[in-house]
Amino acid sequence: MKKIGVLIGIAFLTLLAGCDYFQKSSKEVVVAECYGKYLYESDLIGLVPEGTPTMDSIQRVSTFIDSWVRRQVLIHQAESNLNKEMLDLDKQMEEYRNSLIIYTYESQLIDQKLDTVVSEDEIAEYYEQNKEDFQLRNTMVRVAYVILEEDSKQKPDFKKLLSDPDTLMLQNIDIQATYYAVKSFVDVDQWMRLDELTNIIPIEIFNAESFLKKNKFVCFDMNEYTYMVRFVDYLLEESTSPMEMVRDNIKSVILAQRRQTLIDKMQTALYEKAKREKAFEVYVGSPNME
Q1: Spatial separation of the C-alpha atoms in residues 199 and 174, rounded to whole Å
Q2: What's the rounded Cα separation, in Å, for the pair 239 and 179?
Q3: What's the pLDDT tens digit per position in 145-183?
Q4: Which H or E run contains 245?
Q5: Where do the domains of the chain lie?
Q6: pLDDT band for position 10 (50/70/90)?
Q7: Mean pLDDT, rounded, for 113-131
Q8: Residue 235 bridge partners (DSSP)
Q9: Nearest CA among 24, 31, 38 for reference residue 9
Q10: CB 144 within 8 A of CB 229
Q11: How far is residue 248's CA from residue 246's CA, in Å, rounded to a whole number?
């Protein structure tokens, strides 16, 4: 393929892209050739939208042809280096097609027949029967915290609200934090990892169990900020996760089990039906099976 010829061909095709010139005729016009494979003029139909500037058209066509050539070079190299067994893609394509058909059918069956409602009783039962699967890998805490400017005049108010467990008025803390805190968190129903907390609140903790037993409230100044943390509850590493922490995971497991049960029943029913109808026969002792 001569460079000058390609450039002339590209320009010629581009100039005609806005017309109805690209009509497949009885004799195809070859645009490019690579290792015995051909790119035809008809392959470029629709490549250049009507009204595209000439230079942009040339660039678009040139890029397409170059990409085609590169792909053919790669295919040729692959074909030259793979053995016949590897090049026999018919079986692989059939397996892929069959898998896709089965997956599509099973997905349709699941959409139509799967019961997606999981009750709290089912979640609780699964949790009780599989507690050993819900061991914590990290120490978890439930906390409320605020970060204030070190010279904030509201420090006494926040300290009083956070330090006294009997007056832990979270809503009041949340409202005040909106106006006065640099950062705050008061959702004490939410568990978080202790190391996530210490990434926000720079507390040095060498022994989590000892620290959490002794400290319900922590307040300290560092780098022009005041940090206050109220520890509401904690769970040590390797203890059992509370059910509320793993509820969503349990629901997903139950639904996955239902899906598999539904698929297994469908496959068994179809097999038994085919067996009754004598739709298949197994030739035990065939020479091909020796």
Answers
A1: 21
A2: 38
A3: 999 999 999 899 888 888 877 655 677 788 888 889 999
A4: helix 243-276
A5: 3-81, 89-130+242-290, 136-235
A6: low
A7: 93
A8: 140
A9: 31
A10: yes
A11: 6
State which H helix or E strand residue 79 sits in. helix 54-81
Number of neighbours of residue 22 by Cβ within 10 angstroms:
17
Query: Residue 266: in which H helix or E strand, if any?
Result: helix 243-276
Residues written for the chain: 290
The CA-based angle 43-48-51, given to 5 degrees, is 150
Tokens representing 254 are: 């139950």
**What is the DSSP annotation of 143-174?**
EEEEEEETT-TTHHHHHHHHH-GGG--HHHHH
Note the maximum CA span of the chain: 93
What is the DSSP secondary structure assignment for residue 285, as one 8-state letter? Answer: T
Classify domain 136-235 by CATH architecture. Roll (3.10)
Please state, in angstroms and rounded to a whole number, the distance separating the CA atoms of residues 65 and 45: 13
d(CA 57, CA 52): 6
Residue in the block written with tokens 């790669």: 74
Residues 6+ apart with CB under 8 A from 51: 18
